[in-house]
Amino acid sequence: MPELPEVETIARGLAKRVTGDLIESVWLGQKKETLKSPASEIAAVLDQSRIASVRRMGKHIVFDLEQDRVVRAPAKSRLAQRMTKSRAARQTSTAPAEAVATKSQWIVHLGMTGSLRVCEPQTEVAKHTHAILRLSSGRELRFVDPRRFGRLSVASAADFDAGGIEPLEIDLDRFTNLFRGRKTPIKSALLNQKLLRGVGNIYADESLFRSGIRPRRRASTITREQLAKLFVAVKEVLNEAIALGGSSISDYVDADGEEGFFQLQHRVYAREAEPCLVCKTPIKRVVIAGRSSHYCPKCQR
DNA sequence: ACTATTTCCTGGATGC
DNA sequence: TGCATCCAGGAAATAG
Question: Is A301 near strand C, with its CB below 7 A from some atom of it?
């Protein structure tokens, strides 16, 4: 279940392996529910594009792509029209033909069980493989997702909006404002990607434990002091998890096939009935908005 | 405008 | 052993 720290780890690993590669060909599977954009559009954007960088936005992995396309002056191509007017004007008035870099993005959401693997072409194609990109390095980048909660899409450079604010970049004032007037349980608010992007079930539970707040507490009833603690806890938990390569739950591994180790630091997540590490009270599990939520009934109020 | 609930999906765990 | 059932959970869709 990749959340922000896992996606960050994966994106860093991918950046090391595929930055600068040209995508020489693209294969997309038939399961169209994994595609947010039409298959033809995804293939057209990926094919013959160069991977300029790989980064994380919330729980999304963003591949920044550049395509070199020859634009001939007299014929007003669609590409030329899409460029800024001044640039297009310069183009048509001077050079008869010129290579123009157009920018776009390939956006991957791993959902629950999605993974991106860089491997040799002869590696057996795993079950539930939904996309294969052949790279100029001779390797392949494959998207595998058994449960198919993952999503692939493409966007032009200006398009992609991942929603809320990055939790590692937000300041205390804006953090506090996110919860003002919200009657929803704080747990639900933390999971709401339109507020903060990247926090998932594990890190929401762990942050609430560290700040002593019960997951069911209505967001608007939390004091300034408690929110300040939560603000620190969220950043702390995410940073520690990134440093340990994320949490390996079920079959999560990063781009190098390495497991993360933050699961060993979990204080409440998946520890139902086990003693609280602070006060020995058994950890409780309740369901909030359809999600299992773990907390210590004594330490969290 | 918010908030709560349902739905999607497969494989691993559990129970009889 | 075999088969059915349940559960995990992010986010979109739907309902209130």
Answer: no
Catalytic residue IDs of A: 2-3, 59, 291
| 3-state SS class at A163 | coil
Judge whether residue A201 contacts strand C, using its CB and a 7 Å cut-off: yes
Q: How far is the CA of A144 from the C1' of B9 (A)?
A: 14
Can you tell me the distance from the alpha carbon of A86 to that of A191, in angstroms, rounded to the nearest whole number? 43
The predicted-structure confidence for A53-104, as pLDDT tens digits, reads as follows 999 999 999 999 998 866 655 454 444 444 444 444 444 444 566 777 788 9
Task: Record the pTM.
Answer: 0.86
Domains of chain A: 4-70+99-156 (3.20.190.10), 172-295 (1.10.8.50)
Q: Is the CB atom of residue A226 positioned under 7 angstroms from any atom of strand C?
A: no
Least Cα distance to A56 among A170, A160, A204 occurs for A160
C-alpha pair distances (Å), A154 with each of A35, A255, A266: 9, 21, 35
A128 touches strand C (CB under 7 A): no
Residue A202 CA distance to nucleotide B5 C1' (Å): 21
